[in-house]
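INFO batch 0412 | record 1 of 1 | parsing
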Amino acid sequence: MNTPALLKAQSLVRTGDIVGAEFALVSLAESEGDHALVVALDDLPPSDLLAIIREYDVSKESVVNMLVTPEQFARAVVLERRYNDVSHEHLRGMINSVIFREGRDAGEFLQAIGEIDGGCDALVDYLADKAERVEHFFQYSTFDLFKYGDESKAELVDYDLAADPDEHPRLSHEEVNDHDWMELTWTLRYVTPDLFTEVLFMLRARWRDHQRREALAEAALNATALEEEKNPAPALGEESAL
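INFO prediction complete | emitting tokens
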């Protein structure tokens, strides 16, 4: 379906005019209806769709973000890693702006992401800086690190749990309705439990790797400090003995 609007959108993406590309697609929906835009998005390269979607977040509405299907969105999401955004800020913004819109089935979108190659990696990227809180939620059904136990619980990350604990009261959806990482984690666990298990397993593995690298860096730093203590550098102006 290479309509003039679709071809124009692709051309504008190539030149970096993302707002213009989104406007071209919106004009298609306005002239031929929402369904025409949904069909056109199937023919838009995922990389071009991603360029448009990542330009918008919950603070900036986009017709494309409102109409994109779970499968179309999933294909775009897995390409986000190409941008090498270490903070994953754009990934979180675009996921939140799409799957939590009113009338959307967040679980359906998450399932579509999880079923595509690289989708689970994208979800792990999304939750990467919340690994400890996600683990605590798995164990205690709360995101409050201090609710069950003393401050030491905040450091607890148990990688040996086999089954989903079920001894704590389950949070309601209303209690986590933040349209952000807590709601996404809750949806993963209670709406797409198999996907949650896979994501949690990968999140734990990445967390272990992070802890290992931190330990190695600390050991190297301590070794350097010890070496400098044993062999201090000569003071400025001090002559070495001959």
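INFO post-check: The chain has twelve helices and no strands.
INFO record closed
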